[in-house]
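Bug report (template v2)

What were you trying to do?
Predict the complex of my protein with manganese (II) ion.

What happened?
Run completed; filing so the output is reviewed.

Input:
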Amino acid sequence: MQLTYLSHACFLIEGGRSRIIIDPFLKDNPSAPMAPDEVEVDYVLVTHGHPDHLGDAVPIANRCGATLVAPFELGFFCERQGAENVHTMHIGGSHAFRFGTLKMTPAFHGSGYPGEQGMIYTGNPCGYLIRVEDKTIYHAGDTGLMAEMKLLGELNRIDVALLPIGDNYTMGEEDALHAARFLKARKVVPMHFGTFPVLTPDAEEFASNAEAAGIDVHPLGIRETLVM
Ligand code: NI
Ligand code: MN
C-alpha cells in the first residue's frame, strides 16, 4: 500500500488493485502538485462540502468513471452537480469495496457549500477508516479534538492517522498531539497546514513536539509517498 500526499487534506492511496483519492482540492489550491485532469483513480472519497475538500471531486470522478463516496446529503448534492456514480454512506457505517472496506467516522466540523444563492448545507462532515491490504488508514477530515478518537483507537489498530494541525478551522498542533495519543496510531501524518495564511505554516514544530512525546510522526512533503 502506498500513501501519497497531494497537499492540504488530499491524499492518494494505491493498494487493493485500486487508486483512491481523498478530498481532491487541486484546481483552486495554490499548493496543488497537479491539475485535476492528471488524476487517474477508481474511487474519490469526500469528507465534507467545504470547497477545500469537495474541490474537484465531481469532475475527477466523472472523467475517470470512478465511484464518488460521501455522506448521504453531500452525495445527493454531488449528484445534483452532475456526479454519475455516487455511493453514499453515513457515520458508523462500513461498506466493502474492491480495495477493502471503508468505515465512515464522525468529525466535529461544518459541511456546507457556499453557492451563489447562499450556503447550501450538506449534512454532517465525516472522517474515514480505510482498510487496504491489511493496513488501516484513518483520515480525520476537518475536525476538532474529540473524545470519539479514544474509541477509534481502542477499537481499531490504526497504522497511519492523517490529522489536521492547521488550527483556526480544525485542531491545532497541541490538540493534534492529544488526538495522536487517543488514536494510538502507529504513525501520524500531519495535514491541513500551510495552504492558507490563517493556517499553521508548516509541520516542523508539530513533528518535533510529537517526536519528543514518543509519537512516530512522519510528515510528508507534497507528492511524497509513504510505502507500508
Ligand atoms: Ni472544512
Ligand atoms: Mn478544510
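What did the reviewer find?
The CA atoms of residues 30 and 82 lie 25 Å apart. The longest strand covers residues 100-106.
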